[in-house]
Design goal:
The protein is α+β, with helices and mostly antiparallel strands. It is built from 4 helices and 11 strands, in the order ααβββββββββββαα. The chain has a domain of 130 residues. The chain has an 8-stranded antiparallel barrel. The chain has a two-stranded antiparallel ribbon with strand order 3-4. A hairpin with a 5-residue loop joins β3 and β4.
Length: 275
């Protein structure tokens, strides 16, 4: 009995396995219809992300630097320029002249610790004219004509006494290496009593427009020298005149108009004609 039960169980298992093995692989129509009607979910594949980075701006090529123009050749001149610093002397009795220097910003000033190289004196106009001494050279201001002004000031804003201002003197060298040089001495005044820059522009003697001008009395005149008049008179006598009467005889025909005596110019006695 027990053996027959085991046999029956084995047969049942075999039958089930056999049905499973021979079962059709095709799904039932209902299942197929349901499967066909079910949408297929397609998971999109993410497109590869392209990271675009902004291109760094390329710096523009620098414009070619123009070569600096060469400075024009200086005009040849024989004028000498002396430049110095000046400051008020003790008790403002005179101006002390010192060596000058400039800093990198071109601001002028005296050389630190340097001693005096000269002085400028301005006496009372009734007593004399300004004088300057620089090392071994001495310069005197001078007047060009009677009534001329030795000191010519240009004030700031044309306001008398306002500074900065400039003072110009016409000077002539009277001693030292620049004797007989002539030109101008210009004082650039920063402020009242604050000193400033002194510049002299000097032309050597016998040069410049003044040297080319003829001296008084050198101009040629039309006045004939003695002897020329006699020659001129002889030529007049030799020239034949009108009115030949006889051969070898010369007769001049006098005009019918009477000759008047010349009158004196100038009017009253002592009065000179205007020029």
């Amino acid at each position: 009995m027990r053996g027959s039960g085991l046999v029956a169980l084995a047969l049942s298992v075999s039958a089930v396995v056999g049905v499973a093995l021979v079962a059709p692989t095709t799904l039932p129509p209902a299942r197929l219809a349901a499967q066909d009607s079910t949408p297929v979910v397609v998971i999109p594949t993410a497109a590869p992300t392209t990271v675009t980075t902004a291109a760094s701006p390329v710096p523009a090529a620098p414009a070619p630097t123009a070569a600096p123009a060469e400075p024009a050749a200086p005009v040849a001149t024989d004028v000498v320029t002396l430049v110095a610093w000046y400051a008020n002397g003790p008790d403002n009795a005179y101006l002390d002249i010192l060596s000058l220097q400039t800093d990198p910003a071109f601001v002028a000033g005296p050389v630190a610790g340097a001693g005096s190289i000269g002085r400028a004196d301005f006496p009372d106009p009734a007593e004399g004219l300004p004088t300057l001494t620089i090392n071994d050279s001495t310069f005197n201001a001078y007047l060009r004509f009677e009534g001329d002004v030795a000191e010519r000031w240009t004030w700031f804003d044309d306001s008398d006494g306002a500074r900065p201002a400039t003072l110009v003197l016409q000077v002539e060298g009277v001693a030292g290496p620049y004797q007989s040089y002539f030109g101008t001495a210009t004082f650039v005044s920063r402020d009242d009593g604050a000193g400033g820059v002194l510049a002299l522009a000097l032309r050597p003697p016998g040069t410049g427009p003044a040297a080319a001008a003829p001296a008084e009395g050198d101009a040629a005149t039309d006045t004939p020298v003695e002897g020329d008049a006699a020659a001129e008179g002889a030529a007049v006598e030799e020239a034949p005149a009108e009115g030949v009467v006889d051969e070898g005889t010369v007769e001049t025909i006098a005009p019918d108009v009477p000759i008047e005596e010349p009158t004196e110019l100038g009017g009253d006695e002592g009065e000179q004609p205007a020029t």
